[in-house]
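ping. complex inputs:
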Amino acid sequence: MSRPGPRGDSGDAERVLELRGVSKTYGQEPTAVRALAGVDLSVRAGEMVAVMGPSGSGKSTLLTIAGSLEEPTSGEVLVCGMALAGMARARKARLRRRAIGYVFQDFNLLPGLTAAENASLPLELDGVAVPKARKAGLAALEALGVAGRASWFPDQLSGGERQRVAIARAVVGDRRLLLADEPSGALDSVNAGEVMRLLHEACQRGVAAVVVTHDAQLAAWADRIVLLRDGRMTGHTTRPPGPESLLMPGEIR
Amino acid sequence: MVSVPHALLALLSEGPKYGLQLREEFEAGTGEVWPLNVGQVYKTLGRLERDGLAESDGTGQDGPQKRFRITAEGREALAAWLRTPPDLTSPPRDELVMKVLVAARVPDIDAHEVIQAHRLYLLELMQQWTWLKEGEARDDLSLALVVDAELFRLDAVIRWLDAADVRLARAAAEPPRPATAPAPAPQLRRLGTRR
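pong. complex structure:
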């Protein structure tokens, strides 16, 4: 059995995110704190990469830099092949709105807006005409199985539904890069697995995803798991053989 | 690891069955993670019969014609087994625990590196199980349960490695305390010779 979808052999797929020698230092010597030190990471279309590490290892900094919300002290960041360094502020903001989706731990839905309005918000902020944005928002809700909740408000939704809407908002339109920080929030393990399944399905549709988590069971959904420690990449999983090898243990006695 | 006799009793508790049928149902019921050969099935059925936990309608040779059913004693034995907690009181002699304990003591060995190698291997295993769950186990409840159990077990091992990593780093940063320094040695011996 090979893995379904484009993730199986994405060798030639487009690099959606590239970090080259990215370092980030906060503050000035001698009290400077180095959050990232020479991180290289490349994520292709259709690929999901999980970043794991103890707290303070630089996971979240990596995500904010990849999302162009922060600039690295040194090194290069490319999103969809475009270098962020030197990009004009307005252009960067537009790239952020159009190409990058974010999923946060606490979902961050706007309470005064319906599920559909939440989902289409990034497009509307980007100047897309409201009917067109709403249509895309509904399509995203549909893909995540919550179209039936389109006119509900966040406080009327269950935790799992809220997270589905948050993921719909992150992938609405034609987002290429999905950045998720502990995306399962406080959901129980079965629902948390469901969130990972949805993110994984988005990747099968061609999105590249970076998921930061401390939870190995969630990270295990990724094609590649990258380990961070003290701002450095200390290792990553290599693509293991397919799951069929698990089904051929010795006979039991 | 798996109690084949009790698994067969459980299948017989649903009604009389033939040997081959029992084998098929056993494999399906464990998400086909635990294969079972026919010889093993008949050997186990023979033992269940001898112990009065199951009976067959044929008197001749063991073979596909023979149908087995559970006895009242068999039902009691099954119910008792289900409620008996597995023996988890003494720590098992875990190979990985031993390796990390040893790595912490051997000069020229970086225990963190050893831990990292095991961590990556375990994560790759978890990826494989997850892919299996995502694929074949989506509509197979038995397999999903088996895979969940495996994922939780591996997850616990990784957490232990993380904790060991922190403990070793802390111990290296602190000056050794002479009063407690000799303690680890006898403990290591004791763990190593248990069971």
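Residues 6-238 of chain A form a domain with the Rossmann fold fold (CATH 3.40.50.300).
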